[in-house]
Design brief:
The structure is a single chain. It contains 13 helices and 27 strands. With 576 residues, the chain is α/β, with parallel strands linked by helices. Among the domains are: 106 residues, Alpha-Beta Complex (Glutamyl-tRNA Synthetase, domain 3), CATH 3.90.800.10; 143 residues, Glutamyl-trna Synthetase, Domain 2 (Glutamyl-tRNA Synthetase, domain 2, Orthogonal Bundle); 115 residues, Ribosomal Protein L25, Chain P, CATH 2.40.240. The strands form seven sheets. The chain has a seven-stranded mixed β-sheet with strand order 12-25-26-27-23-24-13, with helices on one face. A seven-stranded mixed β-sheet has the order 21-18-19-20-14-17-22, with no helix packed on it. It is elongated, with a radius of gyration of 30 Å. 40% of the residues are buried. The protein binds adenosine-5'-triphosphate and magnesium ion.
Length: 576
């Protein structure tokens, strides 16, 4: 096996089980057939991001596919930055992309490659096309080129510069390279067919003049290849056998094939297109995500509401859950929209198994246990994860004054409300049974304290006489609790198909973030390492946010325990 097998970083939950069912899809079938027929010893794939933004969950699908296929068939997968547009690309994006892929659990060895590594070769091949009479320098402006390209029903018209001599083309192209002309003054175009039914074949642009500093090549170039010219040739240089890309590139394939056909490339990649991932309630487009960031709709690329890998990580989604999601979504040839709930399901399944349980109270109200000795503290042994016997236990302090959740009390309980109420007994999880004896209110009539008694015979949460309260509440010792800010998240957009009926930004959910400023948490949570997600019992999954400072904890809610969004939506619809 090769090093590309998804391997979890040590802090993260395990890799796919070794007995996981073998994945099958039309791409894996093609690769399997190529290997079986001896056409290739093993596949070479690549993940080719353009470093003009952060990776999102759609990229995770492509990453899982490219690295997965390579690993499963004993091949390799390169990371190649398609860095052909210095105006929009930045080193910070390159670094973030590498970090995200590694965090997802994939390894490309030393094969961090760049289209810019091949600029000399690509230039030489462009010259080769010029010398073969298959490329020419066009002095028309970008607008003129667009206007003369024709439409789906009408052919384009030839450029007046299309029939320049090889000599003149070579000289002008060299001068373009030498930086003699301003941006946009000229381009190099392939000389194919202005009447081709496929518009991509109507003399596509291969090189543009761009006087811009490139993150890797600096000021060495003042012309840059287009994505269309660089992509296929880069694949060929790397010996990529299966160039997996999304469906929008299907119409570009004839151009890629034409270029491969007419250039002395060392190998012939086969391009196979698959459907991009679309998810409800969000948008998977770097262009839109960049606007969300630059216009201040979110805190940054890694905002926990963003569908970026870094946002999902900050939100507390484990890499394993994202990989599992990619497997569940599968690979198909037709576009579809996946329910956001499927991603949550994949993540919840992992977290239910792996997340340690803790106590936290989001909206605290104090209870005082009148018959519990003043100043006494007990250390109770509380299980860390009922789903995982190896997770062990931890000590949790219990005392006379505790915080419980305000909504777990009702002075005048409605039918079916089984939690705490005057005269009623409930179980405090892993601790004792308590009964509310009286309610203390402030001048405004707001409940500020609940007076209770406890039954010392119920230590650990069971009564010797077998009586069973109908409710079990979570709690935190008031003397030991640490305060925290907790950020609760909801969908970033308020409709499943943002922008479907107009301005995308008008569909932003105004309630996508709710900040709870005065939560009370069990003290062990003050030391929870970043990147670890725990379950606050009865409330959901939570993870420390990097905004945390000593004495000023911030937690993000990763997910609720169950999907409340669908319910809220249903209610909204009924109420409307
Ligand atoms: P965006 O549309 O978000 O700007 P992109 O396609 O321009 O994405 P690239 O950096 O060019 O971003 O993408 C790198 C690889 O990831 C490409 O092979 C692309 O096809 C794939 N990819 C991008 N978005 C998705 C998606 N939503 N689902 C699956 N694969 C995707
Ligand atoms: Mg792209």
């Amino acid at each position: 096996m090769t090093p590309e097998i998804p391997s979890p970083s040590p802090a993260l939950p395990g890799a796919p089980a070794p007995d996981a069912p073998e994945r099958r899809d039309f791409i894996r079938d093609i690769v399997a057939a190529d290997v079986a027929a001896g056409r290739i010893p093993a596949p070479v794939t690549r993940f080719p991001p353009e470093p003009n933004g952060y990776l999102h969950i759609g990229h995770a699908k492509s990453i899982a596919l490219n690295f997965g296929v390579a690993a499963e068939f004993g091949g390799r997968c390169n990371l190649r930055f398609d860095d052909t547009n210095p105006v929009k690309e930045e080193q910070a994006y390159i670094d973030a992309i590498e970090h995200d892929i590694r965090w997802l659990g994939y390894d490309w060895g030393a094969r961090t490659l760049h289209a810019s590594d091949y600029f000399d070769q690509l230039y030489a091949w462009a010259v080769h096309l010029v010398e073969s009479g298959l490329a020419y320098v066009d002095d028309q402006s970008a607008d003129q080129i667009r206007e003369t390209r024709g439409t789906l029903t009408e052919p384009g018209t030839n450029s007046p510069f299309r029939d320049r001599s090889v000599e003149e083309n070579r000289e002008l192209f060299e001068r373009m390279r030498a930086g003699e002309f301003p941006n946009g003054a000229r381009v190099l175009r392939a000389r194919i067919d202005m009447a081709a039914p496929n518009i991509n074949l109507r003399d596509p642009v291969l090189y543009r003049i761009v006087h811009a500093r490139h993150p890797r090549t600096g000021d060495a170039w003042s012309i840059y290849p287009t994505y269309d010219f660089a992509h296929g040739q880069s694949d060929a240089i790397e010996g990529v056998t299966h160039s997996l890309c999304t469906l929008e590139f299907e119409v570009h394939r004839p151009l890629y094939d034409w270029l491969i056909e007419h250039l002395p490339v060392p190998s012939r990649p086969r391009q196979i297109e698959f459907a991009r991932l679309n998810l409800t309630y969000t948008v998977l487009s770097k262009r839109v995500l960049l606007r969300l960031v630059s216009e201040g709709h979110v805190r940054g690329w890694d905002d926990p509401r963003m569908p970026t890998i870094s946002g999902l990580r900050r939100r507390g989604f484990p890499a394993e859950g994202i990989r599992d999601f990619a497997g569940m979504v599968g690979v198909a040839k037709t576009d579809s929209v996946i329910e956001y709930g499927l991603l949550e399901y994949a993540v919840r399944t992992v977290l239910n198994r792996t997340a340690q349980r803790r106590f936290g109270v989001l909206d605290p109200v104090r209870i005082v246990i009148e018959n519990y000795p003043e100043g006494q503290v007990e250390s109770l042994d509380v299980g860390n994860n009922p789903e995982d016997p190896t997770a062990g236990t931890r000590p949790v302090e219990f005392g006379r004054e505790l915080w419980i959740e305000r909504e777990d009390f009702a002075e005048d309980p409605p039918p079916k409300f089984f939690r705490l109420a005057p005269g009623r007994e409930v179980r405090l999880r892993n601790a004792y049974f308590v009964t509310c004896t009286s309610v203390v209110k402030d001048q405004a009539g707001r409940v500020v304290e609940l007076r209770c008694t406890y039954d010392p015979a119920t230590r650990g949460g069971d009564a010797p006489d077998g009586r069973r309260p109908k409710a079990t509440l979570h709690w935190v010792s008031a003397a030991h609790a640490v305060p925290a800010e907790v950020r609760l998240y909801d969908q970033l957009f308020s409709r499943p198909d943002p922008g479907a009926e107009g301005d995308l930004f008008a569909d932003l959910n105004p309630d996508s973030e709710t900040i709870v400023r005065n939560a009370m948490l069990e003290p062990s949570l003050a030391d929870l390492p970043g990147g670890e997600t725990v379950q606050f019992e009865r409330l959901g999954y939570f993870t420390p946010d990097p905004d945390s400072a000593p004495g000023a904890l911030v937690f993000n809610r990763t997910l609720t325990l169950k999907d409340t969004w669908a319910k809220v939506q249903a209610k909204g619809a009924v109420g409307a």
